[in-house]
Specification:
Layout lengths: L1 H21 L5 E5 L7 E2 L12 E4 L24 E5 L7 E2 L12 E4 L12 E2 L5 H4 L1 E5 L1 E3 L3 E12 L4 E4 L5 E6 L7 E2 L4 E6 L1 H19 L6 H17 L4 H10 L5 E5 L4 E5 L7 E2 L6 E4 L3 E9 L11 E6 L6 E13 L5 E9 L10 E9 L5 E5 L4 E2 L4 E8 L2 E6 L1 E5 L3 E6 L6 E6 L6 H10 L18
Antiparallel strand pairs: 1-2, 1-3, 4-5, 4-6, 7-27, 8-30, 9-24, 10-19, 10-23, 11-18, 12-14, 12-17, 13-16, 14-15, 16-18, 19-22, 20-21, 20-23, 21-22, 24-29, 25-26, 26-27, 28-29
Helix pairs in contact: 3-4
Length: 470
């Protein structure tokens, strides 16, 4: 049976050869998987389920010209040697013969001596006519004065503690009149807030008047000096009890003690607390009013522990509030509190924000951005979008001109918001790729393409063998 089988096979091969000889104008160039998958063979072949590979023809080719090319063979005329063809979009797909992708783009040849004369291995070539279609954008490597990183945090508004005031009295008495009777009323320094009746104040005024009369009656006598000391002591007592200077002037001018003594505002601001009403009895030291100056407010930002080292007093900060969408308020970092919250691992940073219009109010919530210098002095930098980071290796694509892009490893330093410091790998003036929507579809695809650029050519399967995936 075996000799008969071999004889039949020989007859079949002879018949195939006769058929090719008769139809030499249209011989197959190679054979491809019947489903269009990237499996190829130099001669007739079958799939795993027994289906025949489809022959691929080249229109107008002769039998000699249509033979499967030898990828490693030297081309006539001393031309460069083509190893294989790779996908024009950088996908991990190669072909041993010229081919088009699903969009009709020609596969790119990979040469034995590199992608171009003088090019380093792995240089990516893109047709100049397709650069705009692929969305390739470049930027120069430049020296920047400094790199700034934005530290983001949240915070809330508080009154400036250095401009808070509490209005009290040093004597007991009764409130007979409130000139400012509502919380939130604005007040000016020296403005009358209330009038009180205090027996101790009336007694101190009477004592001053008596001393003044005695001093006048003893003028020219040997005891005039003692009377003067008594007047000075009485005057000092009035001032110690916070009797205003205008009240003392009125007392001297009229010679009459007043039943009511005015209580005045110690500073400009607004009333943030008023715990008293008319007719109430008050004790020494009891708060009558609390006022706050809203010309400046404090924004207390909660900064994460890992960002705290980059925040310094004097740094500029911007805050946005829900109450004022689209508007930002600018302030300055004034102080970093000396302790962290054990629960949230955040530190409190005090930011002073001017508030001339008094739009900002206590307890308002804010999103904060603090400008933190990442570097000091001029530094070589590239846009962050130019860096392809695999976690263990950082690469940029250098624009070599004429559609050539060279992948080059770099060593990075500090990172700002849009720029990153380059310590080694590039020089000022070189151009790096910052955007290629079709060339760099994803970071993982690009890494695979870069690693596969120097891959060995795909071996053609022998006739009668199953196809192999490149």
């Amino acid at each position: 049976m075996r000799p008969i089988f071999l004889a039949c096979a020989a007859i079949g091969i002879a018949l195939v050869g006769i058929a090719y000889a008769d139809d030499s104008a249209q011989p197959p160039l190679y054979y491809q998987d019947p489903d269009g998958k990237p499996f190829y063979a130099a001669g007739p072949s079958k799939t795993a389920d027994g289906r025949d590979y489809k022959p691929v023809f080249v229109e107008g080719a002769t039998a000699q010209a249509a033979a499967p090319p030898a990828p490693m063979a030297k081309q006539a005329g001393g031309e460069r040697r083509i190893l294989y063809y790779r996908n024009p979009m950088g996908l991990p797909d190669t072909s041993p013969v010229p081919k088009k992708d699903a969009m009709g783009m020609d596969y790119t040849p990979v040469y034995a001596d590199g992608d171009g004369a003088g090019d380093v291995p792995g240089t990516v070539r893109i047709s100049p006519g397709r650069l705009q279609t692929l969305g390739v954008r470049t930027a120069e490597v430049v020296f920047r004065p400094t790199l700034t990183r934005t530290v983001r945090a949240t915070g809330s508004v508080q009154f400036d503690e250095r401009h808070l005031a509490t209005v009290t009295t040093k004597v007991a008495g009764w409130i007979e009149h409130l000139a400012v009777a509502a919380t939130g009323d604005p007040v000016r320094r020296g403005q009358v807030l209330a009038e009180i009746y205090a027996p101790d104040l009336v007694e101190a005024e009477e004592e001053y008047l008596v001393a003044a009369r005695m001093g006048g009656a003893m003028a020219g006598s040997t005891r005039h000096g003692d009377a003067g000391v008594l007047v000075a002591a009485s005057l000092q007592r009035l001032r110690a009890l916070d009797v205003p200077d205008d009240e003392i002037a009125r007392l001297r001018r009229t010679g009459q003690a007043s039943r009511r003594i005015a209580v005045r505002a110690p500073a400009d601001g607004v009333v943030i607390d008023k715990p008293v009403q008319e007719g109430m009895r008050i004790e020494p030291g009891q708060p009558l009013y609390k006022t706050a100056d809203l010309a400046d407010v404090w924004l207390i930002a909660e900064v994460q522990e890992q960002d705290l080292g980059e925040v310094q007093p004097g740094a500029q900060a911007e805050a946005s509030f829900v109450a004022f969408p689209g508007r930002t308020f600018t302030g300055t970092v004034d102080f970093i509190y000396p302790s962290l919250s054990a629960e949230t691992r955040t530190a409190r940073v005090r930011i002073v924000i001017p508030n001339p219009d008094q739009f900002l109010r206590a307890a308002m919530y804010a999103n904060v951005q603090i400008a933190a210098p990442a570097t000091v002095g001029p530094t070589l930098a590239v846009p962050t979008s130019a860096v392809i980071d695999s976690g263990t290796r950082q690469v940029v694509l250098i624009d070599r001109g004429e559609g050539r892009f060279e992948p080059r490893p770099v060593r990075l330093g500090a990172q700002g918001d849009d720029w990153v410091q380059v310590l080694d790998g590039v020089t000022a003036g070189e151009k790096v790729v910052t955007g290629a929507n079709f060339l760099i579809d994803a970071e993982s695809n690009l890494r695979t393409a870069l690693q596969g650029l120097a891959a060995p050519p795909v071996n053609l399967a022998p006739a009668g063998a199953s196809g192999s995936k490149p």
